[in-house]
Amino acid sequence: MTDTDFMKLAIEEAKKSVDAGGAPIGAVLVKGDKVFETGWSLVWPKKDPSAHGETECMRKACHKLQAINLTGYTLYSTLESCSLCLGCAGWCNLSKIVFGAYKEDTPDNPYELSDYHAEEHAKRFKNLEVVGGILREECKSLMSNIKNWSPVE
Question: What is the pTM of this model?
Fold first, then answer.
């Protein structure tokens, strides 16, 4: 499977997130050609500011593995990882993050400080590669009816 194929799966997870009361952000953790775990943005349903799609995915994977080492895994996310998610990725030695929409694509949903970009900040972590813009328009459209992380009525 390709990055595009896995991003399509992350988009499907984002739709499930909405059905569960979360923001339309989905994540898929992959090793080789197999999906290992999935995650949704559950900040509002869980009342947990750390329950981002990416962190939920990494938490579940580490729990399943009973280890905090995701070397060799790739995380696909529909939205550019924030500093919290990037920090978690660094802590668990994730090898790669691939995301769809950039933070600039969701101006009504501010979540990061000024000039932060995951691709640039990932260079601080040894062995973490970050690639953005995969199915960017499709991922951007997921957030089109969301303002301040809530659906627009």
Answer: 0.92
Give CA–CA dist 120/61, Å, rounded: 25
Reported as a single tens digit per residue, the pLDDT across 22-73 is: 899 999 999 999 999 999 999 989 999 999 999 999 999 999 999 999 999 9
Q: Are 149 and 21 in contact (CB under 8 A)?
A: no
Q: Which long-range contacts (CB under 8 A, 24 or more apart) does 140-146 make?
A: 140/100, 140/101, 140/105, 140/106, 142/11, 142/14, 142/15, 142/24, 142/25, 142/78, 142/101, 143/23, 143/24, 143/79, 143/101, 143/105, 143/106, 143/108, 143/109, 146/23, 146/24, 146/106, 146/108, 146/109
